[in-house]
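Final report, closing paragraph on structural work. Over the funding period we assembled a curated collection of sequence-structure pairs, and we close with a single example.
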Amino acid sequence: MDPEDIQASGNPVEVLRQKGGNYTDNFPVVPNEITNWLDEQRSVTETVSFANLSHHMTALRVTGPDARELLRDLSVNSFENYEIGRAKQLVMCNPNGHIIGDGPMLRLDDEEYYSAGMLSANWVRYNLETGDYDATVETEPRTSAHEGDPENFVFQVQGPNARAVLEQVTDADLDSIPFYHFETIDLAGVETIALGHGMSTEFGFEFIGPFEQSEQVREAIVEAGREHGLKQLGSKSYHTLSVKLGWVPPGVPPIYDVDEMSGYREWLDADSREATYSIDGSFVSDDISEYYMDPIELGYKKLISFDHDYVGRDALESMVEDPERTLVSLAWDEEDVIDVYASLFRDGETKKFMDLPRIGWGRANYDEVLVDGERIGLSHSRSYEYDAGTIISLCSIDVDHADPGTEVTLIWGEQDSPNPKVERHAQCEISATVGKVPYSADRRKGE
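Its predicted structure, as stored:
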């Protein structure tokens, strides 16, 4: 179904709860596991990891005299101090201040911006086509959505041994490249963009270069990493990194029951990212807007600027002044998690199966979080983290309950789920403890 059909159903929530998700557990092309997901996950914080992100994201390139104006009109970020060689995590919202998508955008030239993975790529294209901008927008869908190879490879190398590995494949002074800045370097004989960015909390870099030379670069890095314990990440292990880092996918697109978004709904097709989400979790509401999220509750308050006009600015001014929720991590009680699995081996109803290391890619997870029986938050993106020894999730929580150490209760399981991929089960309560975001110490800036 395309978004306009979902809107016309009269109950977008019910439609999205029935959907099984557009992806399987793995990203396109990259296997679930290359060795095994546990050792791969460990390598990120113990040795060094190599992640191939070339295939599962939509790339976006914006060029022309009005490229900056187009992006600025849609982004909550300030565009001051946005020089060539710098990247920004652009965040884009609908008129009500609910987030449509985000992603790292590199300024390559005076009139050229590029992102290897932008969740709001469709929103940028739509606004170009319906607006008055002298610019060009090019998008390249994930590999599973088109034939052939991508234009660029996108690799991430992160971990305690990342410096030692990278020193063997480049003479560039990577320590001189600040966080969220980039330079073009020679990497294993290939001209490559080195971006101070990554999806784990460990030091490392993201590298972007011509895909036809991707194997040359990958093989050189893997060979250099042999003596340093390098593991190549499969999609299962890579998918867990964002939880520890504190990045939450925007979830249900805020396009339903919003009059100003009707044109965008009609413009989108049934294969679009916006149309292929499914809703999973114990939180159920007939009001689709209760599934929308704002940048503040996703941890982006520091990125919100009011030095220019953009879509959603008026709504965000009120939210920033008196925010209702903020982003925290939750560490799930180990015994309660064990009891979920134990229910499979005893008489009586079983509890909802908890797949490891985390929920399948492409499903937006919303679990109720309570204090004294009152809902005070929604938990998203749970993941097993070996160094925590339990499940960690990210939670949009009322600011009054956001202090680390606060004890909360999470409702696990769904009552009468219409999704055929969710088995019959009994709901249960899981105790959890509020923690900071990121959950682990952030070493990406080399500190």
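The first helix runs from residue 3 to 8. Residues 37-56+149-233 form a domain with the Gyrase A; domain 2 fold (CATH 3.30.1360.120). We thank the funder for supporting this effort.
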